[in-house]
Write a structure and sequence with these properties.
Blueprint (H helix, E strand, L loop, with lengths): L10 H4 L1 H6 L9 H4 L7 H19 L1 H10 L3 H4 L5 H8 L24 H12 L7 H30 L8 H4 L2 H6 L5 H16 L3 H14 L7 H11 L2 H25 L1 H13 L7 H8 L6 H25 L6 H15 L8 H11 L3 H26 L9 H27 L44 E6 L2 E6 L1
Antiparallel strand pairs: 1-2
Length: 491
């Protein structure tokens, strides 16, 4: 007897905002459409939508590509099309053929201030950039090459998120359609690390702990934040008693990170260390609540003091996430705790660059796939995206003061902080009240949890573990739970 393959969960059947938005395309999918085989699978549709949104983001940068990067400092801000990529082509020695980490740079920076794998990404793009023509032509070509490589990363992210939750591929539309994703995708090279992290989470959802660790180690070699995912994984594996899987992931992560970094550490230790010394010595900068304090205090704290306070706040956040993981009535999903910890790092850090939102978008889609909450958060991030450029336009336009003054910029920082805190709050609510978690309404436990999915608890604190188990939904039905009372209802 052949088993029937469960149909994908449809947001238009579960989410009021998704259902309303679908009216633009003819309304929610009908029952007959579910039975019709078609080339337009969810993964393919999502990949194409992600490509389309990325292309729109490139179009948004057109004023800068057509000259605003070069005609004056304020022009690239008033058009909100700034990107680090063309400026660092010359500023970090790629135009002169210098080798990152090994060759010293002219000026105070001395060495490239990016992790090793991101430096390799930048160098590969430089190899593909023709050395002929004017410097401006080379910078524009360098941005275009990087945009093409980052577009490939975008497709990887969209596909990985779509496949991580087997029955909820359409949740990846949150990533594909995220406006802040499209606006910030080509500001810097963060998408490379995000793609590796999304691929790592896909591998963990398939129970491949070693492959997960290798990809997470590579992601950490491109950007530091992916290493934070080991914290939630430790808590969840501890609660489920999955020590062997966590150990395999940890060892593989460490080995992959060392394989990339050790050759540079041994041959160019000063260049390798620049990223870490720069992160430590960097003062309070854009986007953080520390900047609001520094701008409003007569005697702002020193960089060393802020480093210590930010580290203390992050440690408290880690303890809070761990306590939540051990005491929740039902073991949280991996994506939920991962989102909370990365969000905590963003909220407590002494700098928030607008492209850092890319770190959170895939995690948010997996942790809280509800369109209303996601769009509220995205609106806050778009407001910040516009606000920072208007503030920089104000500070670089001289006596003309075109743009957003300091007080206005502090308001958009607060909007960004509140938007992120709001999304954190609804994720915490889902953890404490698992019957409200839309992912679990179909009878699943943790679709992105791999070996954690459906595993019994072996270590809990307080009243944890007393939430009822969910029965799997039959075809055409959706499981729901009122506290302690499982039941079924028809779609």
């Amino acid at each position: 007897m052949n088993e029937r393959v469960p149909q994908p969960a449809l947001p238009t059947k579960q989410d009021e905002v998704a259902a309303s938005g679908s009216e633009l395309l003819g309304g929610p999918v009908g029952r007959r459409a579910l039975l019709t085989a078609t080339w337009w699978t969810p993964v393919r549709v999502i990949a194409l939508v992600a490509l389309g949104m990325f292309a729109l983001g490139m179009v948004q940068k057109a004023p800068c590509y057509n000259g605003a990067w070069f005609v004056g400092a304020s022009s690239q801000y008033t058009h909100a099309c700034y990107s680090d990529i063309p400026h660092l082509y010359q500023g970090r020695g790629f135009a002169d053929g210098l080798t990152p980490y090994f060759d010293k740079l002219p000026g105070d920076m001395e060495y490239l201030e990016y992790p090793v794998l991101t430096g390799l990404f930048m160098e590969v793009a430089a190899w593909l950039t023709p050395g002929s023509g004017s410097l401006q032509h080379q910078e524009k070509f360098y941005w275009m090459v990087n945009a093409g490589m980052l577009m490939a990363c975008t497709v990887v992210i969209a596909v990985c998120v779509a496949r991580t939750h087997r029955r909820r591929p359409w949740d990846a539309l949150l990533v594909a359609l995220a406006p802040a994703f499209a606006l910030t995708a080509t500001i810097n090279w963060d998408l490379f690390a995000v793609a590796l992290t999304a691929a790592a989470m896909l591998m963990w959802s398939r129970g491949r702990a070693v492959t997960f660790g290798i990809l997470l180690g590579l992601a950490t070699a491109a950007k530091l934040y992916p290493a934070l995912l080991l914290g939630p994984l430790l808590v969840l594996c501890w609660r489920a008693g999955k020590w062997r899987e966590f150990g395999s992931a940890l060892i593989a992560t460490t080995a992959a990170w060392l394989a990339v970094n050790l050759p540079v550490i041994l041959r160019a230790p000063d260049g390798w260390a620049k990223f870490y010394s720069f992160s430590r010595e960097r003062g309070v900068d854009f986007g953080s609540f520390w900047l609001i304090l520094a701008q409003r205090m007569d005697d702002p704290p020193t960089t060393d003091t802020v480093n210590k306070l930010a580290m203390a706040l992050m440690l408290l956040a880690c303890l809070g996430v761990a306590a939540l993981g051990f005491t929740a009535p039902r073991r949280p999903r991996f994506a939920q705790l991962a989102f909370l910890l990365v969000a905590a790092f963003i909220l407590t850090n002494k700098v928030y660059s607008p492209q850092y939102v890319l770190w959170l978008v895939p995690l948010a889609a997996l942790a809280r796939p509800r369109w209303r909450d996601f769009l509220i958060w995205q609106a806050c991030e778009v407001a910040y995206f516009l606000g920072i450029w208007m503030y920089l336009a104000y500070t670089t336009s001289g006596d003309a003061h075109k743009g957003l003054p300091t007080e206005g910029y502090q308001v958009v920082i607060a909007i960004h902080l509140l938007g992120t805190l709001y999304l954190c709050a609804v994720v915490v609510r889902d953890i404490l009240m698992p019957e409200r978690d839309v992912v679990r309404r179909n009878g699943e436990d943790d679709p992105s949890g791999g070996v954690l999915d459906g595993a019994p608890d072996v270590f809990v604190l307080g009243a944890a573990g007393q939430s009822p188990r969910y029965d799997g939904a039959r075809d055409g039905e959706e499981t729901y739970v009122k506290w302690g009372t499982p039941g079924k209802r028809s779609l």
